[in-house]
Amino acid sequence: MKASQFTVSQLKYPQIWLLAIGAGLIAINLAVLWKANNSSLLGMTFLFWAAISSLVWEKRYSLNLESEIFSSFFGLTLIALLLIKSISLTSFGVFLYLSPVILAIGLALLASGFKGLKQYKAELFILFFLSLPKLLSSWLDISLLTAKFTTLILWYTGFEVARNGTLIYLPTGSVEVYSGCSGIELIFQLVGLALLFLLMFPQNLKYKILIPFVAGTLAFIVNALRVALMAILVAQGHMEVFDYWHEGDGSLVFSLIAVLLFGLFCWFHLGRSELRNKDATESSK
User: Fold this and answer.
1) What is its EC number (predicted)?
2) Does the residue 233 lie in any domain?
3) pLDDT tens digits, residue range 23-43?
4) How many other C-beta atoms lie within 10 A of the C-beta of residue 70?
5) Three-state secondary structure along 246-266?
6) Rg, C-alpha atoms of the chain
7) CB of 206 within 8 A of CB of 214?
Protein backbone atom coordinates (compact mmCIF):
# COMPACT_ATOMS: atom_id res chain seq x y z
CA MET A 1 0.00 0.00 0.00
CA LYS A 2 1.26 3.48 -0.85
CA ALA A 3 2.07 5.80 2.02
CA SER A 4 -0.26 8.42 0.53
CA GLN A 5 -3.31 6.22 0.95
CA PHE A 6 -5.59 5.65 3.89
CA THR A 7 -7.27 2.25 3.85
CA VAL A 8 -10.42 2.15 5.90
CA SER A 9 -10.38 -1.64 5.80
CA GLN A 10 -7.24 -1.62 7.99
CA LEU A 11 -9.28 -0.36 10.91
CA LYS A 12 -10.89 -2.88 13.19
CA TYR A 13 -14.54 -3.27 12.13
CA PRO A 14 -14.38 -0.37 9.59
CA GLN A 15 -18.01 -0.78 8.58
CA ILE A 16 -19.11 -0.26 12.19
CA TRP A 17 -17.03 2.91 12.43
CA LEU A 18 -18.46 4.27 9.19
CA LEU A 19 -21.96 3.28 10.28
CA ALA A 20 -21.55 5.12 13.58
CA ILE A 21 -20.16 8.26 11.89
CA GLY A 22 -22.84 8.19 9.20
CA ALA A 23 -25.68 7.63 11.69
CA GLY A 24 -24.47 10.51 13.86
CA LEU A 25 -24.20 12.90 10.92
CA ILE A 26 -27.59 11.89 9.54
CA ALA A 27 -29.12 12.49 12.99
CA ILE A 28 -27.58 15.98 13.03
CA ASN A 29 -28.90 16.67 9.54
CA LEU A 30 -32.42 15.64 10.56
CA ALA A 31 -32.15 17.73 13.74
CA VAL A 32 -31.30 20.81 11.66
CA LEU A 33 -34.34 20.17 9.47
CA TRP A 34 -36.44 19.81 12.60
CA LYS A 35 -35.11 23.14 13.87
CA ALA A 36 -36.02 24.72 10.53
CA ASN A 37 -39.64 23.62 11.09
CA ASN A 38 -39.88 22.26 7.55
CA SER A 39 -41.96 19.17 8.26
CA SER A 40 -42.43 18.19 4.61
CA LEU A 41 -38.72 18.25 3.84
CA LEU A 42 -37.94 16.54 7.16
CA GLY A 43 -40.29 13.64 6.40
CA MET A 44 -38.99 13.14 2.87
CA THR A 45 -35.35 13.44 3.94
CA PHE A 46 -35.88 10.86 6.69
CA LEU A 47 -37.48 8.50 4.17
CA PHE A 48 -34.68 9.04 1.64
CA TRP A 49 -31.96 8.53 4.26
CA ALA A 50 -33.60 5.34 5.55
CA ALA A 51 -33.93 3.83 2.06
CA ILE A 52 -30.45 4.83 0.91
CA SER A 53 -28.83 3.64 4.14
CA SER A 54 -30.53 0.29 3.66
CA LEU A 55 -29.30 0.04 0.07
CA VAL A 56 -25.71 0.87 1.02
CA TRP A 57 -25.81 -1.58 3.94
CA GLU A 58 -27.00 -4.38 1.64
CA LYS A 59 -23.96 -4.00 -0.61
CA ARG A 60 -21.48 -3.30 2.20
CA TYR A 61 -19.40 -6.41 1.50
CA SER A 62 -18.83 -5.44 -2.13
CA LEU A 63 -17.81 -1.83 -1.39
CA ASN A 64 -14.22 -0.74 -1.87
CA LEU A 65 -13.40 1.07 1.39
CA GLU A 66 -10.17 2.74 0.36
CA SER A 67 -9.67 6.49 0.33
CA GLU A 68 -6.63 8.61 -0.48
CA ILE A 69 -5.44 11.22 2.00
CA PHE A 70 -6.64 14.08 -0.22
CA SER A 71 -10.06 12.46 -0.70
CA SER A 72 -10.43 11.85 3.03
CA PHE A 73 -9.33 15.40 3.83
CA PHE A 74 -11.75 16.84 1.27
CA GLY A 75 -14.59 14.69 2.61
CA LEU A 76 -13.87 15.69 6.21
CA THR A 77 -13.70 19.35 5.13
CA LEU A 78 -17.13 19.12 3.51
CA ILE A 79 -18.57 17.52 6.63
CA ALA A 80 -16.87 20.06 8.93
CA LEU A 81 -18.14 23.02 6.89
CA LEU A 82 -21.61 21.49 6.90
CA LEU A 83 -21.56 21.13 10.69
CA ILE A 84 -20.24 24.67 11.20
CA LYS A 85 -22.92 26.05 8.89
CA SER A 86 -25.58 24.04 10.74
CA ILE A 87 -24.46 25.39 14.13
CA SER A 88 -24.34 29.02 12.97
CA LEU A 89 -27.47 28.84 10.83
CA THR A 90 -29.57 31.98 11.17
CA SER A 91 -31.76 31.60 8.09
CA PHE A 92 -33.02 28.57 6.22
CA GLY A 93 -33.05 28.31 2.45
CA VAL A 94 -31.22 26.39 -0.26
CA PHE A 95 -28.74 25.07 2.32
CA LEU A 96 -31.44 22.87 3.88
CA TYR A 97 -32.09 21.18 0.56
CA LEU A 98 -28.42 20.82 -0.37
CA SER A 99 -27.20 19.58 3.02
CA PRO A 100 -28.21 15.89 2.61
CA VAL A 101 -26.36 15.43 -0.70
CA ILE A 102 -23.32 17.38 0.54
CA LEU A 103 -23.22 15.21 3.66
CA ALA A 104 -23.54 12.05 1.54
CA ILE A 105 -20.68 13.13 -0.75
CA GLY A 106 -18.48 13.84 2.28
CA LEU A 107 -19.22 10.40 3.76
CA ALA A 108 -18.61 8.69 0.41
CA LEU A 109 -15.26 10.45 0.00
CA LEU A 110 -14.26 9.53 3.53
CA ALA A 111 -15.15 5.88 2.93
CA SER A 112 -14.05 5.27 -0.65
CA GLY A 113 -12.34 8.35 -2.11
CA PHE A 114 -12.96 10.00 -5.45
CA LYS A 115 -12.42 6.76 -7.37
CA GLY A 116 -15.02 5.02 -5.22
CA LEU A 117 -17.76 7.63 -5.68
CA LYS A 118 -19.15 5.67 -8.62
CA GLN A 119 -20.20 2.98 -6.12
CA TYR A 120 -22.73 5.45 -4.70
CA LYS A 121 -23.75 7.30 -7.87
CA ALA A 122 -27.37 6.12 -7.80
CA GLU A 123 -27.84 7.01 -4.11
CA LEU A 124 -26.19 10.43 -4.56
CA PHE A 125 -28.31 11.16 -7.61
CA ILE A 126 -31.51 10.38 -5.73
CA LEU A 127 -30.52 12.56 -2.75
CA PHE A 128 -29.85 15.36 -5.21
CA PHE A 129 -33.57 15.32 -6.05
CA LEU A 130 -34.27 16.82 -2.63
CA SER A 131 -32.37 19.97 -3.60
CA LEU A 132 -33.64 20.32 -7.18
CA PRO A 133 -36.86 22.24 -6.31
CA LYS A 134 -34.90 25.05 -4.65
CA LEU A 135 -32.14 25.06 -7.26
CA LEU A 136 -34.61 25.23 -10.14
CA SER A 137 -37.22 27.47 -8.51
CA SER A 138 -35.74 30.63 -10.02
CA TRP A 139 -36.53 29.56 -13.58
CA LEU A 140 -38.80 26.50 -13.34
CA ASP A 141 -42.18 27.93 -12.33
CA ILE A 142 -45.32 25.89 -13.02
CA SER A 143 -47.65 28.23 -11.10
CA LEU A 144 -49.62 29.12 -14.24
CA LEU A 145 -50.11 25.46 -15.15
CA THR A 146 -51.25 24.70 -11.60
CA ALA A 147 -53.67 27.65 -11.69
CA LYS A 148 -55.15 26.47 -15.01
CA PHE A 149 -55.63 22.90 -13.81
CA THR A 150 -57.10 24.04 -10.47
CA THR A 151 -59.55 26.28 -12.33
CA LEU A 152 -60.55 23.29 -14.46
CA ILE A 153 -61.16 21.19 -11.34
CA LEU A 154 -63.33 23.91 -9.77
CA TRP A 155 -65.28 24.40 -13.01
CA TYR A 156 -65.94 20.67 -13.41
CA THR A 157 -67.15 20.43 -9.80
CA GLY A 158 -69.75 23.12 -10.40
CA PHE A 159 -68.14 26.31 -9.07
CA GLU A 160 -68.44 29.65 -10.82
CA VAL A 161 -64.75 30.30 -11.37
CA ALA A 162 -62.58 32.61 -13.45
CA ARG A 163 -58.84 32.97 -13.86
CA ASN A 164 -56.44 35.77 -14.69
CA GLY A 165 -52.88 34.48 -14.89
CA THR A 166 -52.16 32.78 -11.58
CA LEU A 167 -55.14 34.45 -9.85
CA ILE A 168 -58.19 32.22 -9.37
CA TYR A 169 -61.48 34.04 -8.76
CA LEU A 170 -64.60 32.68 -7.10
CA PRO A 171 -67.65 34.93 -6.58
CA THR A 172 -66.74 35.71 -2.96
CA GLY A 173 -62.96 35.46 -2.89
CA SER A 174 -59.76 34.73 -4.79
CA VAL A 175 -56.38 33.07 -4.35
CA GLU A 176 -53.09 33.46 -6.17
CA VAL A 177 -50.89 30.48 -6.95
CA TYR A 178 -47.29 31.36 -6.08
CA SER A 179 -44.30 29.21 -7.00
CA GLY A 180 -44.19 27.77 -3.48
CA CYS A 181 -47.73 26.44 -3.89
CA SER A 182 -47.30 25.23 -7.47
CA GLY A 183 -46.45 21.69 -6.38
CA ILE A 184 -42.97 21.58 -7.91
CA GLU A 185 -41.38 20.53 -4.62
CA LEU A 186 -43.82 17.66 -4.13
CA ILE A 187 -43.33 16.60 -7.75
CA PHE A 188 -39.57 16.30 -7.36
CA GLN A 189 -39.92 14.54 -4.03
CA LEU A 190 -42.27 11.92 -5.48
CA VAL A 191 -40.09 11.47 -8.57
CA GLY A 192 -37.19 10.91 -6.16
CA LEU A 193 -39.25 8.24 -4.42
CA ALA A 194 -39.94 6.69 -7.83
CA LEU A 195 -36.21 6.52 -8.53
CA LEU A 196 -35.69 4.91 -5.12
CA PHE A 197 -38.32 2.33 -6.03
CA LEU A 198 -36.58 1.62 -9.35
CA LEU A 199 -33.27 1.26 -7.56
CA MET A 200 -34.70 -1.25 -5.10
CA PHE A 201 -36.88 -3.07 -7.65
CA PRO A 202 -35.25 -2.93 -11.11
CA GLN A 203 -37.73 -2.63 -14.01
CA ASN A 204 -37.61 -2.75 -17.78
CA LEU A 205 -37.31 0.43 -19.85
CA LYS A 206 -41.08 0.86 -20.19
CA TYR A 207 -41.62 1.04 -16.43
CA LYS A 208 -38.45 3.08 -15.87
CA ILE A 209 -40.26 5.80 -17.81
CA LEU A 210 -43.81 5.11 -16.63
CA ILE A 211 -43.22 4.98 -12.87
CA PRO A 212 -41.54 8.44 -12.52
CA PHE A 213 -44.21 9.87 -14.84
CA VAL A 214 -46.98 8.47 -12.64
CA ALA A 215 -45.23 9.86 -9.53
CA GLY A 216 -44.95 13.38 -10.98
CA THR A 217 -48.52 13.34 -12.30
CA LEU A 218 -49.95 12.19 -8.95
CA ALA A 219 -48.04 14.92 -7.12
CA PHE A 220 -49.29 17.59 -9.53
CA ILE A 221 -52.95 16.47 -9.32
CA VAL A 222 -52.95 16.14 -5.51
CA ASN A 223 -51.41 19.60 -5.12
CA ALA A 224 -53.99 21.09 -7.52
CA LEU A 225 -56.75 19.57 -5.38
CA ARG A 226 -55.15 21.23 -2.35
CA VAL A 227 -55.14 24.62 -4.11
CA ALA A 228 -58.77 24.10 -5.12
CA LEU A 229 -59.70 23.39 -1.48
CA MET A 230 -57.93 26.55 -0.33
CA ALA A 231 -59.74 28.61 -2.96
CA ILE A 232 -63.08 27.28 -1.69
CA LEU A 233 -62.14 28.03 1.93
CA VAL A 234 -61.20 31.62 1.06
CA ALA A 235 -64.44 32.06 -0.86
CA GLN A 236 -66.39 30.84 2.17
CA GLY A 237 -64.46 33.07 4.56
CA HIS A 238 -62.88 30.25 6.57
CA MET A 239 -59.47 31.93 6.92
CA GLU A 240 -58.35 29.98 10.00
CA VAL A 241 -59.02 26.71 8.22
CA PHE A 242 -57.27 28.14 5.14
CA ASP A 243 -54.15 28.88 7.21
CA TYR A 244 -54.19 25.32 8.54
CA TRP A 245 -54.27 23.77 5.07
CA HIS A 246 -51.89 26.35 3.62
CA GLU A 247 -49.07 26.59 6.16
CA GLY A 248 -50.10 24.36 9.05
CA ASP A 249 -50.05 20.61 9.47
CA GLY A 250 -52.85 20.34 6.94
CA SER A 251 -50.39 20.99 4.13
CA LEU A 252 -48.61 17.76 5.09
CA VAL A 253 -51.81 15.75 4.72
CA PHE A 254 -51.83 16.22 0.95
CA SER A 255 -48.15 15.27 0.74
CA LEU A 256 -48.99 12.12 2.69
CA ILE A 257 -51.93 11.41 0.38
CA ALA A 258 -49.66 11.71 -2.66
CA VAL A 259 -47.07 9.38 -1.13
CA LEU A 260 -49.75 6.84 -0.13
CA LEU A 261 -51.32 6.87 -3.61
CA PHE A 262 -47.93 6.35 -5.20
CA GLY A 263 -47.19 3.59 -2.70
CA LEU A 264 -50.45 1.85 -3.66
CA PHE A 265 -49.54 2.14 -7.33
CA CYS A 266 -46.13 0.56 -6.69
CA TRP A 267 -47.70 -2.18 -4.56
CA PHE A 268 -50.22 -3.11 -7.26
CA HIS A 269 -47.51 -2.93 -9.91
CA LEU A 270 -45.28 -5.32 -7.97
CA GLY A 271 -48.23 -7.65 -7.42
CA ARG A 272 -49.02 -7.70 -11.12
CA SER A 273 -45.33 -8.24 -11.96
CA GLU A 274 -45.19 -11.26 -9.65
CA LEU A 275 -48.32 -12.70 -11.29
CA ARG A 276 -46.84 -12.17 -14.77
CA ASN A 277 -43.58 -13.83 -13.73
CA LYS A 278 -45.50 -16.73 -12.18
CA ASP A 279 -47.59 -17.21 -15.32
CA ALA A 280 -44.47 -17.04 -17.49
CA THR A 281 -42.75 -19.64 -15.32
CA GLU A 282 -45.73 -22.00 -15.41
CA SER A 283 -46.16 -21.67 -19.18
CA SER A 284 -42.49 -22.48 -19.76
CA LYS A 285 -42.76 -25.78 -17.90
Assistant:
1) 3.4.22.-
2) yes
3) 888 898 888 888 877 777 788
4) 14
5) HCCCHHHHHHHHHHHHHHHHH
6) 23
7) no
